[in-house]
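As described in the Methods, two query proteins were run sequentially through the folding procedure within a single session, without resetting any intermediate state between them. The first query and its resulting structure tokens are shown here.
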Amino acid sequence: MPLSKHQLKFSFKHIFALLGLVGLIVVLLLSRHEFTSFWHLLGGLRWYVLAGVVVIQLASYWINGLYYRSILRVFSCDLSTKRLFEGALATNFVNYVLPSVGLAGAGYLSQVLAPEVPRGESFLTQIMRYAFSALAVLVMLPVGFLFIVLSGESGHVIVKITLASIVGIIIFAGCILLLVQSEATLRRFCAWLVKTLKKIRPQFDSEQKFNHFIDEFYVGYRAMVRQKRKLSVPFFWSIIYILIEILTFYMAFLAFGKVEAIGIVIMAYLFANIASIFGGVFFSTGIFELGMAGTLVALGTPFVLAVSVTTVYRVLNLLIGLPPGYYFYRKYL
């Protein structure tokens, strides 16, 4: 659902986001004696490399547009990649403003794709975006771990974290899949949700629209089940998106004149995403950054370099995505 002005100005979730940021600040304060080295690294930053990061990051949003177009074709809908590119930026903005494991962005995407695409199918399109991203992370984890082993940097901790992450993603994905496949269970849950909303807000009168939304959702779901082979295309774009993001993260090291082991870069990016998946209910800032910097340090990257690279990468990531995301968010309200 579109955000109201009140929601943009304040949300209780912003408090949790602030706590995540405070956590990162605490880590920095505990190592304040390293700030001299941090500024020394910034002084030697290769800005022309960062210019390349900007271009590649924008390309990653275009890849998201290609993902949306490929999965919408499963529903016999064909929208322009340009509009879907704008929708990807707007959805990213909404997810950042309202951390809710991506549900806010999924709801907003239905606004971007309306009226050509039913809202239930739009919501399913974004949910599948998250599912394919999680599957792509699951595929890339063994790849990153293999590079770590080949480089001789592996240890018991990284083995345990990798296995725990794989198990966690599989359980999380399995629970969602079981819920979606059990239509009766999902409808009972939605009926309970409607009754709860009525108790909280007696004037709530959208039960019919809510049920219609669920009907549209399952129309799209059945269409996907009938055309499973076509789902390989959106999954392919999800893999490409992950690879592009890893490339931009690696370029952040190059911007500091450092050549880091590719396995370390892959694992740091993947663990940061896993942390944000499970922490995304409450936090939009801090969890991803702590996960990324923490993994780098655990795998032997000097603390100052880990924080410097993480900071520059994330600042660029947000500066590239949020301003145009806000513009397109306003455009499609």
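Immediately afterward, the second query was submitted; its sequence and tokens are:
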Amino acid sequence: MTEIKYIYYKLSSLNGSIKHYFHFFYGVFIPIILQYIENSKKYPNLTFIIGDDVGPMLRILLELPIDIKLKQFLPNYNELDIEEKYLQPLDKHPNISKKWDKFITYDIYKKVNKFMKTCIDNNDLILDKSDKYDVVIIERRINKAISTTEFGENKYTDIMKTSGSERRSIINHDEFVEKIKSMYPNKKVINVSLEFMPIFEQYHLFHNTTMLIAQHGASLGQIIFMKPNTYVIEIVSKLKQKENWFMPISNVCGINHYQYITDEEHTTIDVDDFKNFVVGLKK
């Protein structure tokens, strides 16, 4: 068997831009992991090369312990024996195709989680393995690194100009957090922002929580890191509810997924109503 040393992956998205976090996560990040799993045992010295611009998401990609190089920084690219392939994206909208579950499968779920756990174990990442969270609340903040006006004229431009709490927010977030803490006085309840958190810390957080509470948004794509029989409460506006990107992922992963509906993207939550909603969930 001739050993392949370089694979150049052409990147694409099925329903968005790979510079948007969700489409990057399922269009590039997870497919790269799957390709690494498939090829690393056969070709242990394999280098992945990408030439497409993933914008500020590049930092996340390069956090992986995978030999990934950028085409523009290989001056002798044309002299190398390189196999060129398209990286198969998985960011297909579940409402568009009845065959969506052929894209995100339970087998993929298991492979990705095993890979992430192995990376943490093998690289001595400083993450406390005893960490367990009863409730994790995701607070949307702003990271200007993941929004930019330098995308030219295309249908994704308006999305790319905003991020985090610019796009949607819980106006009374502090009151909301305090209410949830009062509901679980003897539980570990934490409020975090993901905008500046390294990917393996995000994995550790999602993988070790029993309940995740978050507004609709790209970070919910990471529920694929959660364990089966855990809970997700997605706070989603009437406008976004019909898109339903995340509940099908939970269904594949065996996660209990519920939606709390609000009127607006920037919303003030009736904390007593939210408490009644949570109490009424089947657990």
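The first strand starts at residue 6 and ends at 10. We note this only descriptively and draw no conclusion about the first query from it.
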